[in-house]
Amino acid sequence: MKILNFFNSIYDEDILLKLGFLKRIRLFEGIKKRSLIHVLENLQERTYLKGETIFTQGDIGRALFLVFSGKIALSRLDPATQKSATIAEVNPGEFFGEMALLEEMPRTATACALEETRVFMLFKIKLESLLFTRPKIGVIIASQLASILSARLRAIIDKP
């Protein structure tokens, strides 16, 4: 019986750690901590090894990635020179690939793990499911997503 209690306490600590992580992500701002369990249930967790490609420029996007630990490099291939250049690094607490939640279109960059990296993936189909089964949660995520994309677009437009 003590072994069972030990595993239950580890499981609970792991869940609490993940919920604490999600609470700090801007995409989930406004979702009560007790409701984040529904978000967590809709995320898929995966670990990528250093140097492993997560997706390649041109692949069809179907998920947003939340970096729990590690670091990701985003790079783009210049069609004129056929050389790849890093355009961003994504650190723990940040996310990328959010456009895939709106439309399943080709990825605009390649994502590669710079070190062992643990991510949570939110697939478009899971967000759509949340919109129907937990509309309050789905609406908050959709609203935050719109706000984040708008701010990113504005930053690009305002660059001198």
Explain what the structure shows.
With 160 residues, this protein is an alpha+beta fold. The protein has one domain (2-157): Jelly Rolls (Sandwich). It is 38% helix and 27% strand. It contains 4 helices and 8 strands; from the N terminus they run ααββββββββαα. It has helices at residues 2-23, 36-41, 124-133, 135-157; strands at residues 44-48, 53-55, 63-69, 72-78, 83-90, 95-96, 110-113, 117-123. The chain starts with a helix and ends with a helix.
Mind telling me the C-alpha Rg?
17 Å
Number of domains: 1
Percent range for β-strand residues: 25-35%
What is the number of helical segments per DSSP (H or I, 4+ residues)?
4
Task: Give the uncertain stretches in residue-range form.
Answer: none
What is the general shape? Answer: globular
| H/E topology pattern | HHEEEEEEEEHH
CATH superfamily: Jelly Rolls
The CATH topology corresponds to: Jelly Rolls
- Which percent bin holds the helix content? 25-40%
Mean pLDDT over the full residue set = 90
Query: Which strand order do you get reading across the main beta sheet?
Result: 1-8-3-6
By CATH, the architecture is named Sandwich
Q: How many β-strand runs?
A: 8
- Please give the alpha-carbon distance between the first and last residues: 65 Å
- The CATH class turns out to be Mainly Beta
Largest sheet: 4 strands, antiparallel
Which structural class should the secondary elements be placed in? alpha+beta
